[in-house]
Specification:
alpha+beta, 8-stranded mixed barrel, 3-stranded antiparallel β-sheet, 42% helix, 15% strand, globular, disordered N terminus
């Protein structure tokens, strides 16, 4: 009896379990069907024939460089349509078309291939074939991504003296990201170095100023204008600062007052001009730079931003030296913990644009004199004066010349090594007065720091074995002392003649190595 009851119970339980399984299966199947439909844009339309893709590129040869990528996209999406919602171009397609008409906002002057054909379709002046428009948009997407996100070819950037490695970008997979969130086409700091978008905002402002078509030169005599001076020229200067955003209102006053003083000081700081209260011809020359020239400078530096990996946006610790600004910043946990003036290479001995990993701090360093300096500078002096080496604390070392450690050593009390083929490093210097100069391109290529002691302290302070007493002794030792960093720190030596800081202030710097025009020649070449 008990066995019979148990058997009935098992049968009922099994039937109920089976019923629930059926419900789960039906529910799961419905979910799967819905999910698959959401991934495939047009499951009810005939897929694109691969032969049609080949035919398309025969008819549109200017886009043939993208043929393999286009095939890759459609293989990935089972040759389904990407840019259509039923028979209408989707949001991403319309946004891409709009952006193609606004490439100047990206600092580009490009002729879009087959723009007429696109215009004819989008403006409905001509009815296009669906497959043709679909493939044209996909090809133009790669054209857009190459120019807006990737920038100039690596061979060209290397020719222009840029040796910071560029991150490989995969625009086939990025298209899927854009399909999910089309708004990223306008701004995505995960794809582009964030400084790019800051410069883009300033570019928009400067284009607006240019459109007002009133940027007359300010004429001034050689005598500087001092506080309290009154003249019509002061009104012109005030109006110029107002248009550039350094004054909230234009009072039209012709008197050099406290309000204008603050604008003068701030402007000089942002332009790399020695800060004081005088209105000089140097200041006026900067204010008179044509707005079109400023726009070009913004555009070429936006291009340089394309060469910087977007990973830089999330970097928590690194050292960044910008050659034209003569500045070094040590960033840690996203904040600047040290800013220092620097001296960079002369025009004849240009500091190289590249990146490396800081590994060693060398206290009381020897200076191993480069052969070029020995041949050009030291050897002639030795011929004149046999005691030249001893008088300069130098000695022969295995056929080469080196300068012994000491306060007069050309490398000062400490140097910072990030091994590289360019033989460039950061170091102290006994020539402190050079940091007071407005233009600081005096070295043979290496980078001299105004605050090397502070940098050394920050690099070793977390090491319990290094006290302040030990650090001070290391600076003044008679022999080299090497310290190896536990964690290598990325060092980037860049070249930006315009830069927007964290407060949104635009800075312009002198193009000391005359590189902007060379880049502009590639960027704005006429087709």
């Amino acid at each position: 009896m008990r066995n019979g009851i148990a058997l009935v119970f098992l049968v009922i339980t099994w039937n109920m379990f089976s019923l629930n399984l059926d419900k789960i299966f039906i529910k799961t199947t419905k979910t799967l069907v819905f999910t698959n439909k959401s991934k495939i844009h047009k499951s009810n339309e005939t897929p694109i024939d691969s032969i049609a893709i080949t035919t398309f590129f025969n008819n549109y040869p200017k886009l043939k460089i993208y043929e393999s990528k286009v095939f890759e996209v459609y293989r990935k999406h089972q040759f389904n349509y990407i840019w259509y919602q039923s028979n209408t171009i989707n949001e991403l397609g319309n946004l891409l078309y709009t952006n193609l008409s606004q490439l100047s906002d990206e600092g580009l002057q490009l002729k879009v291939p087959y723009k007429y054909e696109l215009d004819s379709f989008f403006l409905q002046t001509k009815e296009g074939k669906k497959v043709e428009i679909e493939l044209l948009l996909t090809s133009i997407y790669f054209f857009y991504a190459d120019n807006v996100y990737r920038g100039l070819d690596d061979k060209i950037t290397t020719k222009l003296g840029w040796f910071i490695p560029k991150k490989k970008q995969y625009f086939v997979s990025y298209l899927d990201t854009l399909m999910s969130n089309p708004s990223l086409l306008n701004k995505n700091e995960n794809k582009v170095f964030k400084q790019y978008y800051r410069l883009k905002d300033v570019l928009k402002k400067y284009r607006s100023i240019k459109d007002q078509n009133s940027w007359e030169p300010i004429l001034m005599k050689n005598n500087p204008i001092t506080i309290g001076f009154s003249s019509p020229i002061v009104s012109q200067i005030r109006e110029r600062f107002y248009r550039l955003g350094y004054l909230k209102i234009d009072s039209k006053s012709s008197k050099y007052d406290n309000e204008l003083i603050q604008a003068v000081r701030k402007y000089k700081q942002n332009m790399g001009i020695k800060v004081d209260d005088l209105i000089t011809t140097r200041l006026i020359a900067s204010l008179n730079v044509p707005i079109s020239d400023r726009i070009k400078t913004l555009s070429v530096n936006m291009e340089r931003c394309r060469w910087i990996s977007s990973d830089f946006n999330q970097a928590m610790e690194y050292i960044f030296i910008n050659i034209p600004s003569y500045q070094m910043n040590y960033i840690k946990e996203g904040k600047t913990i040290l800013n220092s003036k620097v001296v960079v290479g002369k025009v004849m001995n240009q500091t190289v644009v590249f990146s490396g990993k800081l590994q060693y701090v060398v206290f009381s360093p020897y200076w191993n004199v480069p052969k070029s300096i020995i041949d050009k500078e030291i050897a002639p002096e030795i011929k004149k004066n046999k005691n030249y080496l001893s008088q300069h604390n130098m000695e022969w070392n295995d056929g080469n010349i080196r300068q012994k450690p000491g306060p007069k050593n050309s490398l000062g009390l400490v140097k910072f090594l990030f091994p590289n083929s360019n033989s460039i490093y950061l170091h102290d210097t006994p020539s402190k007065s050079l940091f007071n100069e407005e233009k600081r391109a005096f070295s043979h290529g290496c980078i001299r720091l105004e605050k090397p002691i502070e940098l050394a302290y920050l690099l070793v302070k977390d090491d319990k074995n290094w006290t302040m007493e030990k650090l001070n002794k290391a600076f003044h030792s008679k022999k080299e002392i090497w310290y190896t960093l536990k964690n290598k720190i990325p060092v980037y030596i860049g070249y930006f003649t315009s830069w927007v800081d964290n407060e949104g202030e635009i800075h312009f710097y002198e193009d000391i190595y005359a590189r902007d025009e060379c880049l502009a020649a590639y960027l704005f070449q006429k087709e």
